[in-house]
C-alpha cells in the first residue's frame, strides 16, 4: 500500500518548488497556520503535554478538512515550520511523523508531503498549504443552499470543544476513563471525515463547509453566503449533546454550548436537495428556509432563536 | 490591464479553499515564511523602519522567485499571516498592498492573492504558498547540468547583502546617496527577474535554481544535484563586484563576500548547452566541468578554490 501514497506528486522535495498533478486542469488550495499558545499549549493544566506528533497531525487534519469541504480530494501538502532554536530534534521528527500519519490514517491516499521550508522564530509555528483535485466535478461552495434543502452533518460536533475543556481543567487527564480521554485526544488529533466531502459532492450537495468555528457560526456563514435561513432540528442536537453529558457533568459545563459552538472536530455541514438519499456518514440535522420579507440570514432551532437559551424550550 | 491580473484564479477568497487553473494538468508549488527579527527587523540600526509594504513585497517576491527558478509562471498566492494583537491595522493593509504591488510590478501578470488565513502570535510571521504553471513544458531542475554547459546568471548578485550591511550599520540611511539607498531598498523589496525563468526554460536550460543563499552555496547545490563541478569566471565576478565598491568602501567591507555569499537578490543561476544563445537577462559567468576521479562536486573560480582568498589571485 505504501507505494500508492503520494501518487499525485510528480516532483517532490529537493528543488525550488514541487510539481503536483492536477488531472482536470484545476487545483484546489488552502493554507492554515498553528501557533504555539494560540492553537495549542505545550503543557496543559490537566497535565497533558502536546507532542510533536499531535501538532503535525492537527496541522494536516485541519488543512485536509478544507479540501474535504470543497468536495475535493487532497493531492499534496507543503509545510513551513518555524521553530525556536531549543526545540528538540525528536519533537520535530515526531511532527513529521504526525503529518504523514494523519494523511495515511485519515485516508488521503493520493496525498503526500511534497516540500517544505524551515526557519527560526521565538515560538513554534506550523503552516501547511494543501492542494486537492475535484476530479472533473464542480466545487461545492457555501453559497448554493436553496430553500427546501436538507441540512446534514458528517462527523462529530462538540467533541473537540469538550476535549479542550478537559485539557484546560485541573482534573488530571490520566485519572479519566477512556471515553473522556478520547475527547481530549480528538482535540489534539482531529478526525475529519475525509470520505464525506467527495461523497457529498457526488450526491449533489448544493452547499458545504467544514465546521471550524462551531455549528452556529459556520451555519450562519452558509446562510449568509446562500441568502437563506438555516433551521436546526432539536432531536438530532439532543442526540449530539447526550454523548457529551459525562464530560459536561464532570466539568459542570453545558454540553449544548459544545455542540453549537465547538468547531475543531472539523465535521462537514452540507445541504442537499429535498429527497436526496444522504451519502454515508451524513445525518439530517435541519433544513434550509427561504428568508421572509426583511429577514436576514440566520440560524434557528425549530424556528426559534438559536442561542443556548432558545434550545432550552426543546430540551427533553 | 488590471482586469487581466488573476486570470488563473477560478474561485477566490470566501470559501474553505480557492480553485486555480492548472491548464497543463500540473501545478508547481512552493512555500516560504518570513519571521520578524529573523528575516527582517521592524527597526534597523541605520534608522530605517521596515514597512508592512516591504514585508508583503518581500514575501511575494521570494515565493515568485521559487516558481521562476523552475522555469514556471506564477498563477496564485495564498497567504497565512500571524500577527501580535497590537499590530496596527494600517501596517497590515500596507502588507496586503505590498503583496499585490510586487505581483503586479514584478510582472506576474496571471497571478493574484486567492486566499488566506489570519491568526495571532507573539511575533509577526508571514507565510506565502505560491502556485505556478509550466505551460506544458518540462520543469527545470537542479540536477540537469552537464559538463561543457555554460553557467549563466540573471539578475543582480550581492546587492541585497550590501543593502543588509547598510541597514545594519550605524550610518544613517537618510544620509546616503540614491545608489546606496537603492541597495537597502533591494534588501527590503527584492527584484527577482521573473521573465528570465520561463525564458531560460524556452532556451533549453539544463539546470536552474534561484540564488537565495549565495552564489557559492547555491552553486554547490547545483553541482551536487547534477554530479558536476561549477567553475566561475573571474572577469564577470569582478564586474559584479565593481558596482558594490562604493558601499564596501563606506563600510570597510569586502564586496567579493557579497557577490559570492549574498543571496537575497533572488537572481537565477542556470546552465545551458554549449553554443546556446543566452536568453535576455542572462550573462555567462562560468562553465560546468566533469568531476575528476575521486573529485567531489564543488565550486571553483578559474579552477581554484572558490573561497574569497582564492579569488584574490585574480583580482585586478
Automatic annotation (TrEMBL), chains A, B:
- Binding, Mg(2+) 2: 32, 66
Pathway assignment reads: Cofactor biosynthesis; thiamine diphosphate biosynthesis; thiamine diphosphate from thiamine phosphate: step 1/1
Superkingdom as given in the UniProt entry: Bacteria
Q: Where does Mg(2+) 4 bind?
A: 16, 30, 66
Q: Does the keyword ATP-binding apply?
A: yes
PurM-like N-terminal domain span:
14-133
Annotated binding of Mg(2+) 1, by residue: 32, 117
Q: Which InterPro entries match?
A: PurM-like_C_sf, PurM-like_N, PurM-like_N_sf, ThiL-like
Q: Does the keyword Transcription regulation apply?
A: no
**Chain residues that bind substrate:** 39, 264, 311
* Chain sites annotated for binding Mg(2+) 3: 16, 66, 210
MF term (GO), any: thiamine-phosphate kinase activity
Q: Identify the EC number(s).
A: 2.7.4.16
Q: Which UniProt keywords apply?
A: ATP-binding, Kinase, Magnesium, Metal-binding, Nucleotide-binding, Thiamine biosynthesis, Transferase
Q: Which reaction does it catalyse?
A: thiamine phosphate + ATP = thiamine diphosphate + ADP
Residues annotated as binding Mg(2+) 5 are 213
Q: Which residues bind ATP?
A: 116-117, 142, 212
Protein family per UniProt:
Belongs to the thiamine-monophosphate kinase family.
Q: State the function annotated in the UniProt record.
A: Catalyzes the ATP-dependent phosphorylation of thiamine-monophosphate (TMP) to form thiamine-pyrophosphate (TPP), the active form of vitamin B1.
Q: What else is known?
A: Reaction mechanism of ThiL seems to utilize a direct, inline transfer of the gamma-phosphate of ATP to TMP rather than a phosphorylated enzyme intermediate.
> What is the recorded name of this protein?
Thiamine-monophosphate kinase
Organism of derivation: Pseudarthrobacter quantipunctorum
Whichever gene encodes this chain, its name is thiL
